[in-house]
Amino acid sequence: MSIITLTSDFGNLDYRVAAVKGKILSLNSKVNIVDITHDIQAFNLIQTSYIVRNAYKYFPKGTIHILSVDSFYNRSRKNILYKADGSYFLAADNGLLSLVFFDIKPEAIYEITLNNRFDDVVNFTSTDVFVPAAVHLANGGLPEVIGRKIDSAKELLFPKPVFNESEKMIIGEVTYIDNFGNIISNISKDFFESTGKGNEGFTIKFRNLTLSRVYSSHTEVVSDWERETEFHGQSAAIFNDSQLLELTIYKGSKKNGAKSLFGLNVGENIYVEFV
Fold first, then answer.
1. Which residues, 6 or more positions from 120, have their beta carbon under 8 angstroms from its beta carbon?
2. Do domains 3-150 and 162-274 have the same CATH topology?
3. Checking DSSP bridges between strand 183-188 and strand 169-177, what pairing results, if any?
4. Known PANTHER family for this protein (predicted)?
């Protein structure tokens, strides 16, 4: 059974998510539809790329992913199909897919030509373009039938950390805040370890706060499980399951997590100073 996933900034209050699902089922009632999320902040491509990049890898190869974020229709902007890492990804040509695959070269890129004639009417990109293209692929159709191969698509630069050699300091930034209020940076474990090699220690600095240890997981914060509740609310830095430096509060939430207690926002800097 073919799988089509949906990611959007539509939210769940309006009709749009239901319309997309209804259109898929009207074309193929046997497709397995999976929601990744519809709670993307409006037009937020960085947030979308983080979520999709970390989610799609758990799906079988050949899964078709529809990314309806900043996907309003305009004849001057292409809609594209990426074949990458063994699966298909449909989105507007707004740079989103270049953020998802900033370190992976797509196997092929297509401009979706379905419903793209001068007299075609497109009211809603997701139902009128993405869904017919996705169902075509789900039915075993070739991408060349619904699109023409192109050499490149719009590219955006994913914010990367930099290393200041003279000050022996990594300068990174907050790229995502999750549902528990955890603050995720763009500093990877590999970059952290390679730049810090040969140094005795480090200090993580943000706002007026500092941390001097990185845990391997949230639960490593607890040193005595008989007294586990005493560790609730303890601040820590970890490398999360995406191997990115994360600032967290043990057993924190949106209301009392790292975001609210540290006061950091997306785009603010996080520093790692080596000694």
1. none
2. no
3. antiparallel
4. CHLORINASE MJ1651
Instruction: Report helix, strand or coil for 204.
Output: strand
Evaluate whether 248 touches 258 at the Cβ level (below 8 Å). yes
CB of 253 closer than 8 Å to CB of 180 = yes
- For 63-119, give the secondary structure using H, E and C: CEEEEECCCCCCCCCCEEEEEECCEEEEEECCCHHHHHCCCCCCCEEEEECCCCCCC
Domain locations in the chain as residue ranges: 3-150, 162-274
Q: Which two tokens stand for residue 256?
A: 């009392």
The CATH superfamily assigned to 162-274 is Bacterial fluorinating enzyme like (2.40.30.90)
For 113-179, strand residue ranges (E) read 147-150, 162-164, 169-177
Taking residues 30-55, what's their average pLDDT? 96
Residue type, 79: N
Give per-residue pLDDT as tens, 111-145.
999 866 655 778 899 999 999 999 999 999 999 99
What confidence tens digit (pLDDT) does each residue in 71-105 have? 998 888 899 999 999 999 999 999 999 999 988 99
- Residue 131 pLDDT: 97
- State the pTM of this model: 0.89
Between the CA of residue 49 and those of 8, 69, 82, 147, 163, what are the distances in Å? 11, 10, 14, 23, 24
Q: How far apart are CA 125 and CA 93, in angstroms?
A: 12
Q: Which CATH architecture has domain 3-150?
A: 3-Layer(aba) Sandwich (3.40)
Give yes or no for residue 190 having a pLDDT over 80. Answer: yes
What is the rounded CA–CA span in Å between residue 201 and residue 198? 9
Q: At what angle do helices 131-138 and 16-27 cross, to 10 degrees?
A: 40
Dihedrals phi, psi of 67, to nearest 5 degrees: -115, 95
